[in-house]
Amino acid sequence: MSSLNTEAAARMRRLAGMPLVPIGTSMARGPRSVWGAIRGVLAQHEMLGLLVRRDLKARYKDSALGFFWSLARPLVQLAIYFVVMGQFLGAARGIPDFAVYVFAGLTAMGLFTEIVVGGTGSILANAGLVKKVYVPREVFPLASVGSALFNFGIQLIVLLLATFLVLKPPLHWEFFYVVPALLLLVAYGTAFALLFSALNVYLRDVQYLVEVGTMLVFWASPVVYSWTMVSSLVQSPLLLDIYTNNPLTLAVLGFQRAFWVAGDSVPYPDFLLLRMLVALVVGLVLLFVGHRVFRRLQGNFAQEL
In whole angstroms, what is the distance from residue 182 CA to residue 252 CA? Predict the structure, then answer.
């Protein structure tokens, strides 16, 4: 009996001598908080990878075509817009290779929409893990980003094949516009995913507002109509600049300039690359702010869930 007490006392002394490792919301501010969050996510990279694979497998579980269903929605949208908007309403008359033009915009907007919508519901979808296991809460919206990028990669391959089918592959220097365009979509999408996922825990209507909002920003971007049409209809230079400098408009224009070879002679906004770089800086600031809000709100996730 005495040996058991001695062993228990020795164990208590060892535990008392171990340093306390803080978990949960860091009280550090500024760059220290950001770097600490990044290190926490990197330390859980295996967990992040498992969540991405789980989301992809769960989405297409027991389906015969599997990941090819990720192409179903954009291809159906392409067919509808090509027939209804392009042929019946005549939008294709002034836009050569209208199918490639539309699919380039759909690919860009599909990535942004999937990141934001999937990220918004990610905390609620993983409520069981949030309440039982501590991991950096950022991994849940980031897992939605990872699965969205996977589906985007499949759509991008189809888009490239389409350019070869029309005998106009993107073998021009404007192809590099895809890099800042992709960075814009990921930066703004991740920022909104972090922000809305945290707000959605406290106000469940956020996920429905996000779905409506993504539909609005889709039609506010030149996906099924051209930027030149907008520039000819909008007489105010200020309003045209506001429309053009919308980050999603810039990202869609970047994708179109990269993949839509038939539009090389079509006018684009002046200083398009500079506009994209400025929008990217603003997006990184928004990402920082969205992450700060997420960190402030995550402390009560388990209680709210």
Answer: 9
Neighbours of 177 (CB within 10 A): 24
Kindly write down the DSSP assignment for every residue of the chain, as one continuous string.
Answer: -HHHHHHHHHHHHHHHHSPP---SS----THHHHHHHHHHHHHTHHHHHHHHHHHHHHHTTT-SSGGGGGGHHHHHHHHHIIIIIIIIS-GGGGSSSHHHHHHHHHHHHHHHHHHHHHHHTHHHHTHHHHHH----TTHHHHHHHHHHHHHHHHHHHHHHHHHHHTT----SGGGGGHHHHHHHHHHHHHHHHHHHHHHHHH-TTHHHHHHHHHHHHHHTSSSSS-HHHHHHH---HHHHHHHHTSHHHHHHHHHHHHH-GGGTTS---TTHHHHHHHHHHHHHHHHHHHHHHHHHHGGGHHHH-
In angstroms, the CA 116 to CA 211 distance is: 9
Each residue's pLDDT expressed in tens, for the chain with a length of 305 residues: 555 567 666 666 665 665 554 444 444 455 555 666 667 666 666 777 777 887 777 776 666 666 666 677 777 777 777 777 666 766 667 778 888 888 899 899 999 999 999 999 888 888 877 777 777 788 889 989 998 998 898 889 888 988 888 888 898 899 999 999 999 999 999 999 999 999 998 988 899 999 999 999 998 999 888 898 899 888 888 999 999 999 999 999 999 999 998 888 888 999 999 999 999 999 999 999 999 999 888 877 767 66
Cα-Cα end-to-end distance for the chain:
45
